[in-house]
Design a protein that fits this description.
Helix 3 (about 75-90) packs across helix 10 (about 235-250), helix 5 packs parallel to helix 6 (about 155-170) and helix 13 runs antiparallel to helix 17. This protein has 18 helices and 8 strands. The radius of gyration is 23 Å and the shape is elongated. The chain is an alpha/beta fold. Strands 1, 2, 3, 4, 5, 6, 7 and 8 form an 8-stranded mixed beta sheet that branches.
Length: about 425
Amino acid sequence: MRTTTIVWLAVCAAVMFSQTADGGKSRPSSSDLERTASVYHSYEFNPIVDTPAPEGFVPFYIAHYGRHGSRRLTGAFASDALEALEKAERSGYLTAEGVSLISDVRKIAEAHKGMMGQLAERGAEEHRMLARRMAARFPGVFAGERRVRCQSSIYPRVLISQANFTMALKNAAPSLSFDFITGDKFQDLLNGPQLSRNEVNADARIREAVNAYAARAINPLPIIKRCFAPDFAPEEPLKFVRDLFVCASICQCMSRELTDIDIYRYFQADEIDALSKALAVEDYAAFANSMEFGDIQLCGSRNLARDFAILAEEAIADGSIAADLRFGHDSGLWPFAGLLGLEGPGDRVPFVDSWQKCPAWKWMPMASNLQIVFYRDKSGEVLVKILYNECEMHIKGLSAVIWPYYLWRDVRDVLTSECRLPRANGG
């Protein structure tokens, strides 16, 4: 083992975090545990509540963006953790707990062979359920022989999410017709444009900031001591523990494929708390409207915002278009929520406070979605309300006609403006 690793572990031992009153062994309930997974948290289907529209206004069109559903890992978290464990196993340095752990991590790694980043069964069902709920909530939008236009990221997990959503929508409204399109052009549109040189430098600063936070917040020594013999540790202890926690987080997404795996049981409550906060602030800093990095993230959504405005104007004029469905990623949806100035998912806070003030489990779980629902009266006046994860939203800095209903022309101005960061960031 490297000398630097030994010294590093000794420093950790000197600054061990305080544990809970019962030694840190108790852990949250199952539902709270799932929420520690940040953007790996599977979608929560909560009761739907609709505020009645102003008299005479009926829904006729929906502009939508949906993140892909629950998926497998997109990085080498499981294989890297397994490599560290197998190195110890070959030398006989695993404790009894380590032997149990390596068995579970092997199952996770095996489930990812040839399937990295692919949609899980749970993710497919999430999109079918979302479509069924949308159709039941707004039946008039999908009545008759109407058209649905669909744009998608090029990634299979997104394409298959789209397939499940549209299949369920077609089953609910058989007279609908669908147009599908994808390609690199739509990857940039739905996932944000390629970063400029200055933005790449900012991306490096984000990684540096979140890694510094993790180094302060997480003490990997206790779990290292429980899983490995005293004279052994992984070469990168902090990375090992973080990789292991991501493996724990992803199991809920693969609950139908990994029915008997519970990596959380290898952590104590205080460790889960520290790791979940680190994961949450990392995701918020990378995608959302943080005080430190939000300007870059939000401005990357300008083209997407204009696409919403352009296609909506076409739908209003055409009359035959029921919906524009977009399917993409967290990196496309969360900045867009900030650009719109949505209260909650678009909040601007210091990234280190985001785990509490703008939690990723709530605002960016798998299958997160935004729906702009359009209403019209006999005079042709158009109102919209915005649903985020199926909940009615406030738009910061914009006055509603009657909340949650806003004039479309006011929302269109937000979509077509040059970021409007002071308005979007306020509050």
